[in-house]
Amino acid sequence: PVNRRKEVQESRLKLPIIGEEQIIMETINENPVVVICGETGSGKTTQVPQFLYEAGYAHGKGIIGVTEPRRVAAISMSKRVAMEMNLSERVVSYQIRYEGNVTDETKIKFMTDGVLLKEIQKDFLLTRYNVIIIDEAHERSMYTDILIGLLSRIVPFRHKRGNPLKLVIMSATLRVEDFTENNRLFRDTPPVLKIDSRQFPVTIHFNRRTPQDSYLHEAYRKICKIHRMLPEGGILVFVTGQQEVHTLCRKLKKTFPINKTESSTQEKRKESRRKLDKNRERAVLPNINLDNYSVAPVDEEADEEALDSDLDLEENEQEEDIDCKDVESSDAGSCTEPLYMLPLYSLLPSHKQARVFEDVPSGYRLCVVSTNVSETSLTIPNIKYVVDTGKVKTKFYDKVTGVSTFKITWISQAAANQRAGRAGRVGPGHCYRLYSSAVFNEFEKFSPAEITRRPVDDLVLQMKDMNIDKVVNFPYPTAPDVEQIEAAERLLVSLGALSAPEKIQRFRDLKKGFVHKITTLGHAMACFPVSPRYAKMLALGQQHDLLPYVVAIVSALSVQEIFVENFKPSSEENEKEEFTKKLEHMKAVKKLWAGTGHSLLLGDLMVLLKTVGACEYEGCTPKFCQKYGVRMKAMKEVRKLRAQLTNAVNSVIPNANICIDPKMKPPTDLQAKLLRQIVLAGLGDHVASRYPDVIPETSDGSEKKMKNAYQCPDLEEPVFIHPTSVLYKEKPHFVVYQNIVETSKLYMKGLVAIEPE
Ligand code: ADP
Ligand code: MG
C-alpha cells in the first residue's frame, strides 16, 4: 500500500490519466505489449509506474523499469515519483551513464535508454524486470528504437519461459504506426490507449511576417508585449541553445529588473500594477478557439494588429541591438513588475533545472527561457503563454564520414504543436508563433527518427556483441540506410572489432551485404560504455602503465563541452569572441602544467589529460573550475566516467588492477609517445595532412590558395585546425583529429600531431 500525502493525492486527482487507471491496468494485464498515448502533462511518466507498483508488478524479485531518452528526465522523474509515493530514493531510483542511486531495495528504476541497452547485453532476457516502460517513444531516439526492436523479441521469449515480461510504450503523440503497424516488429498489433488530454484550448497566433535572422529579437519583443499587456500567467519561450537562453534571460532581466530594495519600491510597484491592469484591460484577447488548439489559427492578421496597435511599441526600434533604454522610454515602459526569469537547458546544473518546478515568488511573473528540453519531457507548471521561435538546433552528421554540424532549422509541425500544447495545462492559453502560417505549412509533419540521421558504429558493435550478426535484418521501427550500416561495419573491421566477412553461403546473403562476426577484441570493446574508437584505445592501454592515462583521456573525450564557453555557430562576431576567450583558457591550462613539455607530443589531448589531472589534484572545486574555464558539471561527469571505466577495465582486462590516483603524475616522454600510438589506433582513419600553402590547380592553370588547409581521406573539401586547438599556431604536417565540425568552415577538433616515421 502506498501512503501518499494529502496534497499529492489532490494534485494527482487532477491528472487526466488517473481516471484511466482501471482500463490501463486491465489492458496491461491482458496484453504483453501496450501503447499509451497522451498529451504531455497528462500524467504518463509520473503515474503509470505507480499504477504498476500498486498492481503488484514490483512484488517479489522483479522490478519496474522506465527508460527516458534524456538524463534530465530520468533524474527528475525518479525524484518526483519517490516524492509522490512517499518512498525513499532507495526504492524509487535512477541510473544514468555516470551515476545513479539504485540499491537492492529499488522497485522502480528510471534510466536512460542507453543504460537499459547495456543491461540487455549482460542479461538478454532482462530477468530482473517484470515490466519495461519505454517512455517518450515519440522522440524516436536511436536507443529507444533499438530497445523496442529488441523487446519485441524478448517479450515472447519470456512468455515461453513462463515468466512474462510486460512492455509498455508511451508516446506524447498519436503517431505510433511505426510501432504498431510494423508487423516485423509485433506480429499482433498491440492495443493503443489514448488518454483524454483534458488539455485546455490554446489559441495560436501566427506572425504575419517571418523574421529572417532576428528571431531572438522578435522573441524579446513578444515577451515584452505579453508581460506589459496581458493578464497574469507564466511565459515559456523556446529558443535553440544555451547561449540564446542566456542572452535572452539577460536582456529581459535588464528590462524588467528585480528590485532589491523591496520596501521603498513597494508603493511604486502597486502604482505601476494599477496602471498595468488598466493597460491590460485594453488588450482584448481574441476569442478562444474551444475546439482545438492545434490546427486552425485564429484570424492571424487581426490578432497581430490588435496587439501591435495596443502596445504601440516603436516599430522602428533598432533590430540588431536590443537596448533596454529604448524599451524603457517607450509608452508602456512604466511597467516595473519584475519578471521571474528561469533558464532551462540540458547542460544546466540539476539543482538549477529543478527551479522551474518551485513556486514563483508572489508579485512576479514566471518566464522560462528554454531549449526544446521542455517540449515534451518536462511539464513546467503554470504556463499560459508560449512563445515559439519555431527553431531548433540539431546535430547533423554525415552518415558516412561522421562529420558533424550543428544547424538551426525549422521544427516539425508535430513539435510546434507540442510546444503550443505547453500553454494549455492550467487553463486556456495562447501560443505566439514567430513565423507565418505559410511557413508553418511548409514544415515537415514529423521529425525524422534519430537512427536515420547519424553514424551507427556504436550501435552495430553493441548488436554484434549480442550476436545479432545480420544487423540489416534487425526489426527496426525505422531502418537506417544500408550505407550507414556498411560504413559502421567498415570502421569496426578496421578497429579489429569485427572479423573479415565470412564466405558468402547463399545468394540471399550477398544481397543483404556481408556478415562480419565480432572478434574477442570486439567483445572486450563492447564492455566499455564509450564509442568504439575510444573503446579500442582502452583495450590497447595495457602496456607501460598507460591504462590510467588512457582512462583519463577517454573519459575527457567522451564528455561534451569540458570548457566553459560553447561554440556559437550562428554569428560570426560571437564566433571570434568565443575563440579568443577559449584561447585564454587554453593558455591558462597550458601554464598550469607548464614545464612538462609534452604538449607537442599529445596536443589537445594533453590539455585534456592535464585538465583532468589538475582537477583531481586540486580538487574539483568551483574555484578551480572558474580559474581555468572548466565546466564543473562536465568535470564531475568526467570523474564519474573515469571511475566507471576504471572498474570496467579491471573487470575486462585480466591483471589490469588500476585505480584512480589523485596525484597522477604527467606521463613520461616514452609514455606520451606510446599514448599517441594508442590514440592513433583508435582514430587511424582520422588523419589529415597539410596542403602545401599554394597548390597549382591543374585544370585551368590558376593557383588556389590553400593556406593552412588540410586534406583528410573521406572529404573533398579542405579542413582547418580549430582556433581553440593548441596546435593552431603550430600547424604540423600531419594531425590526428577527434572529430570534424562544420561552422563557417570544416574544423578539426581534439588534435594530436604526428610525424611520419
Ligand atoms: P506526462 O508524462 O504525461 O507528460 P507527467 O507525468 O510528466 O506527464 O506530469 C504530470 C504532472 O506532474 C504535470 O502536471 C507536471 O507539471 C507535474 N510534475 C511532474 N514533475 C514534477 C515535479 N518535479 N514537480 C512538480 N510537478 C511535477
Ligand atoms: Mg512524460
From TrEMBL:
<dbReference type="GO" id="GO:0004386">
    <property type="term" value="F:helicase activity"/>
</dbReference>
<keyword id="KW-0378">Hydrolase</keyword>
<keyword id="KW-0347">Helicase</keyword>
<feature type="region of interest" description="Disordered">
    <location>
        <begin position="260"/>
        <end position="281"/>
    </location>
</feature>
<protein>
    <recommendedName>
        <fullName>RNA helicase</fullName>
    </recommendedName>
</protein>
<feature type="region of interest" description="Disordered">
    <location>
        <begin position="304"/>
        <end position="330"/>
    </location>
</feature>
<keyword id="KW-0175">Coiled coil</keyword>
<keyword id="KW-0067">ATP-binding</keyword>
<feature type="compositionally biased region" description="Acidic residues">
    <location>
        <begin position="304"/>
        <end position="323"/>
    </location>
</feature>
<dbReference type="GO" id="GO:0016787">
    <property type="term" value="F:hydrolase activity"/>
</dbReference>
<keyword id="KW-0547">Nucleotide-binding</keyword>
<dbReference type="GO" id="GO:0005524">
    <property type="term" value="F:ATP binding"/>
</dbReference>
<feature type="domain" description="Helicase C-terminal">
    <location>
        <begin position="222"/>
        <end position="467"/>
    </location>
</feature>
<feature type="domain" description="Helicase ATP-binding">
    <location>
        <begin position="25"/>
        <end position="192"/>
    </location>
</feature>
